[in-house]
Structures are given as C-alpha cells and as structure tokens.
Amino acid sequence: MSTFSLVEDSSRRIHVQIARQIARKILSGELQENQKLPSEMNLCEVFGVSRTALRESTKLLSAKGLIESKPKVGTRVMPRSQWHFLDPQLLNWIQDLEDTKPFLSQFLGLRKAIEPEACALAATNATVEQRKELSVLFQKMTMAAESYDYGSWTINDHLFHKTIFLSTGNQFYVPFGNILSTIFKQFIDHSAEGGRFCLEEHKAIYDSIMTGNAPQARIASKGLLDDENQKLSNIELAIA
Question: Could you say which residues form the signal peptide (predicted)?
C-alpha cells in the first residue's frame, strides 16, 4: 500500500496538503483506478490530523473527480474519465509529479485542437485595441528573444496567447485562454532556460492576425504547434 507522510502545519491549509499528497499518488498511478483508500481512521493516524481536516481534503478531491467517498463503503479512486484535468489546482498537482511527460503530450494535443481556430477567429474579430496589445506584446517578445531574456519571453508569451483567445469574439474561448495560461505557467516556464525561441513562428501568427488573414493565421498556429517545435524531454518544451 502507498505510504503517506505526516502533514506539517504551514502557510498551506492542512486539508490542502493532505489532498495534494493523495492526488499525486492517484495522478502518478501509484493509487490505481477503483482502488480503495485506507480507512478514515488509518488516514487520520498516518497524516496526524483530525477527522475534520481529512474530510475537508476528501471533499476537495471529490470535487475534482479523483475520488468517491460513500458511508459504510469507503473511499475509492475514480476512473480517469471522471478527473477534472482542466482544474487549475489539479494542474498544479500534476506539475509536482516526477514524470509529467504524458501530461505535457496530451496538453499539446489540446492546444493543437483549439489554438489554430482561435488564431483564425482573432484575425477576423480582434478589435483595434486588441491588435495594439498584440503589437506591444510581440515587440516585447522580440526584444526578449534578441537579448535571451527567458523571464521576459515567458511572461509576454503567456499574455500573447491569452490576448489571442480574448480577441476571438467568442466568449466560450475565454475560459480556454485562462486554462492554457495556467498550464503555460505550470509547465512551459520550466522549459525556458536552455530552450529555443520560436520567434519566427510567433511572427507568422502575429502578421496574419494583424493583416486579418484568418486562413494564414490558422496555418501559422499549426506551424508553431508542430511536433518538431514542441519536442518533449522530461518536463522540457521549446519555448512556445
């Protein structure tokens, strides 16, 4: 059976610390789908916490679709189909895992499905102010790439892609922009040092949006997300 460790009192709320430990074991596969967790009494003893704190943690995990807890039956791990992968806190817990490569690969698949159409819509629907904002951000990205300023690049890269989603004119794309921004911060920041800047690929997207060329914006986005530009190595990606 998987081992847990005592929870230390810190700035983090205790029930969140407990939930994070359990979630990491579920996400890593150490705790299998449909596997039962130890009894409430055993978990309280292992973590060194009260039943109140443990129950708060199970509520948190249940809300993310990771576990199901029933009276007199116990708590079991839910199938992966029930996990709320787009939950920002769950993404944070995934980032803590030793092997994030499978999640990064699936994240890239999500981007390939969503971003090209977002770029095409932005080319058609971006307002004057949004185009100005993209221009400022791309200028900052260019300066960052030329000076190898990885910190500035990642900050403005996040904002560049988020602004594109905001520029689609479709409110249903806005949440995806926020989600992708969260994933960028959790994963892609780790790839900054030693990565390569995809400046030309971003320029192709930028030029297409600024000229209102939706088909070309779609093609340019697919070019950025090409597997050769997004090589995965442990937790590293090209700077995208």
Answer: none
